[in-house]
Amino acid sequence: MKELVYSLARLLIALGLGVGIGLYIGQRPTAPIGEAVVATTVPELRTVGTEAVPCVNVQAYKAPAKKKLALPAKVQDNPNQVVTSSVGLKPDMNPHRITSVLDIETGKTETYDQRLALPWLAINTSGEAGISYGQRGSDRIVRLEVRQSLANIKAVRLGAVASFDQPLGGGRSDGYIGVGGWYRW
Hints:
Strand content: 25-35%
Number of helices: 3
């Protein structure tokens, strides 16, 4: 019984360390789920500048589109702001560039999704923790595993890994801490 208590304590410490490291390294701020926020202009356009282009009529969706897309109240209440395009993306590991193009003759907007190449080297502070049940040799075990990514080289993630195995039959606990790389597909 004493060994089980120590094993559970080590399990909780390992989990706490993994979560703590992940939080310390920092999560990138993201928009809350379902909230529309203004997107940041891509660096490629920052030095190009803008110009006034004459356009008589623009093809836009009717006013209810703003509510259906859950745009901010200030957009929904402003009749001078209209929806010309909205796209959905399937998430993947690659960055995407979304570009909207207005045809000034027809007034229609087309939106392009450009899937960009993975960078050769990038900082990655994502992490994951999991718990699983399985078989090791003749023992049934519960395994806790924590991974903390530190960097990416193309599709290979480099980081730290820790796992803790607790046999359900009351045997000796086992742990592993190391560094390595893993490929995601």
